[in-house]
Design goal:
globular
């Protein structure tokens, strides 16, 4: 069973909120569509860069989406 992470809202056209578990290196992304995905093996630097990016959705699409293993998790 996947536990949900505490997420922060972000300003993005495609992303609603982002959470991160530093110990497990899991990044949780909630999309405006309502879908929720967890990406595994994401370094802390990638999470920090994502959250500080002026274009969060673009950073996610360029640096996270196709680079890390993802699984959809039930809402």
């Amino acid at each position: 069973m996947v536990r949900h992470l505490e997420r922060q809202s972000v300003q993005s056209c495609i992303l609603r909120s982002v959470g991160y578990d530093d110990a497990m290196k899991n990044l949780e992304i909630e999309f405006h569509s309502g879908l929720l995905y967890q990406y595994s093996g994401v370094p802390t630097k990638v999470y920090n860069d994502l959250m500080s990016s002026s274009a969060v959705g673009k950073y996610f699409s360029d640096k996270v989406r196709s680079r890390f293993r993802a699984k959809q998790i039930p809402v």
